Automatic annotation (TrEMBL):
Region spans: Disordered: 108-130
Domain of life: Archaea
Chain ranges of the PRC-barrel domain: 154-212
Official protein name in the record: PRC-barrel domain-containing protein
Pfam families found in the cross-reference section: PRC (PF05239)
Matching InterPro entries: PRC-brl_dom, PRC_barrel-like_sf
Length: 245
């Protein structure tokens, strides 16, 4: 592959940067639409960035934004390591222009052993408008997508409405993050537009929406663990599917 560099506009959630990118980076940033996104690309060399635009300042600035990153190398889900998280930050107002997370699998040997190329295609990417961050995670860890649990949620959570246990909408899921105590959290945009974070373990269920509440622990004594049918209390077998309760 040629390493030809092209000047491209790379969009983030709070602005964009103009940067020279390689073909490979261009491919990563292309989510199928006309625009290229910064989040799937991850960290760029600052000297490749010529300009940045901050949505908060509504202004284009010469030169790169601040790029802050750290490498927590923290296990955030089974066999899923948060290798690096970073932010492109406006020099002028400190607003976030783009964020990225690079995840990797803990089981490196497994990855090496499988003949898959490290760089997956981003074919099943959602519309470019949603979730550049989450696509980055999909791209970085394709194997984890099929696993149940947080790893799955990581890839598909953005944009889902978040409801509390009383079915009140409290906001919209933004991304999976890590709080100051290094715990996994769900970052949400609240109804009033501000950001908030919810401890990962207070998420009850992720489906069409994100439901908060105490973790799945069958509240009804007769509830079938297999099909979910609520049987009479004290039942030994499920009326619906015959499963032992
Ligand atoms: Zn700004
Ligand atoms: Zn059943």
């Amino acid at each position: 592959m040629s390493s030809e560099l092209r000047l491209k506009k790379l969009r983030g959630s709070g602005g964009y940067v103009m940067a020279t990118v390689t073909d490979e980076q261009q491919m990563k940033g292309n989510l199928g639409g006309p625009d290229l996104f910064l989040a799937p690309i991850g960290r760029l060399d600052a000297d490749k960035i010529t300009k940045h635009f901050c949505n908060t300042c509504e202004k284009e600035f010469e030169g790169p934004p601040k790029i802050e990153f750290e490498n927590p190398n923290e296990e955030v889900a089974e066999n899923l390591i948060l290798a690096e998280r970073g932010q492109y930050i406006c020099n002028s107002c400190n607003a976030s222009i783009a964020e990225y997370r690079d995840f990797k699998k803990e089981d490196e040997a497994g990855e090496v052993g499988s003949a898959k190329p490290l760089e997956p295609q981003v074919q099943n990417a959602p519309q470019p408008e949603v979730a550049p961050q989450q696509v980055s995670e999909v791209a970085a860890t394709p194997e984890t997508v099929t696993q149940p649990g947080p790893a799955t949620s990581v890839t598909s959570i953005e944009g889902k409405m978040v409801f509390d246990e009383n079915a009140n909408k409290i906001g919209t899921a933004k991304q999976v993050g890590i709080d100051s105590t290094q715990s996994m959290v769900l970052v949400i945009t609240k109804e009033d537009g501000t950001e908030g974070s919810i401890p990962w373990n207070s998420i009850k269920k992720i489906g069409e929406v994100v439901l908060l509440g105490s973790p799945e622990a069958a509240p009804q004594p007769g509830k079938c663990s297999s099909c979910g049918f609520v049987n009479k209390e004290g039942s030994k077998f499920c009326e619906e599917c015959g499963n032992k309760i």
